[in-house]
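Here is an idea for our session: we take a single protein and study its fold together. To get us started, please write out a protein record for me. Once you have written the record down, we can walk along the chain together.
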Amino acid sequence: MSINNHYKPSGGTFTSDGMIIKFRDTIGPQVSIKYSLTGTTSTSIGHGKSASVTITITDEGGSGLNGNNNYQYYLSTNSTQLTGGEWINYTPGQAFTIGEGKSGYHYLFIKQVTDNVGNLSTGSSNVVEGTTYHGGMRLGFDNTPPTAGTMTMKLGNSEGTTYTNDTYTNQNVYIEQVEGTDEHSGHKTTTYSVKGPITLENQTNPTTLTEEGIYEITVTTTDNMYLTATRTYTVKIDRRLPTAGTLTMKLGGSTGEAYTNDTWTNESVYISPVDGKSEHSGHKSTTYSVKGPKTLTNQTTPTILTETGIYEITVTTTDYAGNIATNTYTVKIDKTAPIAGTLTMKLESSEEEAYINNTWTSKSVYIEPVDGTDEHSGHKTTMYNISGAKTLNNQTMATTLTETGIYIIEVITTDNMGNKDTNIYTVKIDKENPTCRNINNETRN
C-alpha cells in the first residue's frame, strides 16, 4: 500500500522488527527573490542600469528538491505575457545580473519547482497565459541616453530675432538653455559650456556673447543613471569691416588706357567691379551703384558710361556677418562743346560806339575777345584768329584794325577736354577816297 506525500529518508529508517519508516511531506519548497538595482543615482528613482538578483529555494518539508527541476527565469517586457526575452538558467542561491543594455519596465518571472514528493513551490506568484510563475515584480531599467537639451539663441537680447546656428552675425548673441528629457530614469541636469573668446563651464543661466570670434557651445543633459547626451552649437560674431572692392576704369573700352579717378575726359569710360575680401566671416558680395547722367543699382557686371556729366560710383562689399565697406569713385565725361567766346567791337577805341558786325566803316575798329564758358570740364582758353587785310593767330589781347580791307575774325573757345566752339565775325574798313573821273577832259577830247 502506498501513502501519498510520504518519503523514505536517504539510507532508510528501520524499526527493531526491520520495518522501514516513511515520513510525510506536505510542504512545498519556498521560493524567495531578492534584488537590488545598480547604477542608479538614488534608491527613490526606481530605475537602474541593471539588477542583481538572488533566488533562494528552501525545502522545509524534508523530501528534498526534485532533481529534474528546471531552474529558469524569464525577463519579459509585458506583465501579462512572456515577450521580449527568453528562458535563462540560474543557480539557486547564487546572484546573477539582469537588465544590462535594456531600457524601460521589465517583469521577472520564475518557473515553479517541485520537491521529491511533488509539492509545488510556493512564494509570490502570478498567472501568465494560464501558467503560474513566481515573481512578476516590475523592474525599471535605463541604458538609453536622455534627449539632449537645446539652446535658444537670439540676436541682441532675449527679445531679438532668432540667430541661426553656425552663421556669422555682427550683433551680440543671447543664449539660454532648454532642458532635455528622459523617458526612463528621468532628467537630472542640463548644463552648457562655452569655449572661444570666453570660457564657461556647467552653466544653467542665460548669458550674452559679445566679443568677436567663434564660440563652441556644448549642451549636456544627464539622466538619473548618469547617462549623458550632448548637443553642440556654434556662434560666430564678426564686427570687422571687410576690404571694400575696387573699380577697374578704362578709356573707351575694356582694353583702353586706364582712366584716372575724378578727372575729366571726352571719351566714354568702361567700368568693371573687382571683388573685395573678408578675412573673418568671408566675402559675400561686391556690387556697385551709379548716380549721375545714368542711374544703376547693385550691379555686378561691367558697363560703359557714355553720356556727358559727372558720375558718382559707390562700390559696396558685404561680408557674411552683414558688415559693409565702400569705396567711391567719380567719373567726369565732357563730350559737349563749350559756348564760344564773343568779340567786343568798337569804332576807333574801346570807349567809342559799337561797330556793327559785317558792315562798312571808314573808321578803325577796336576789337577785344570775351571768354566763352563751359559748364562741364570748364573753360580753358578763348582766342581769336584774323585773316584778310591783316593776319593774326591765337590772340587773347585787344587790338585795333586800321587798314582798309575786309577782316575775317574767328573766335575759338576750348574747354579742358579739348572740345571747341567758334564764332565768326567780319569787319569791313574803307578809308580810301573814291576815284573821280575828269569829265571836262573827256569832253574836250
Summary: The chain has a mean pLDDT of 93. The chain has one helix and 35 strands. The first strand starts at residue 6 and ends at 7.
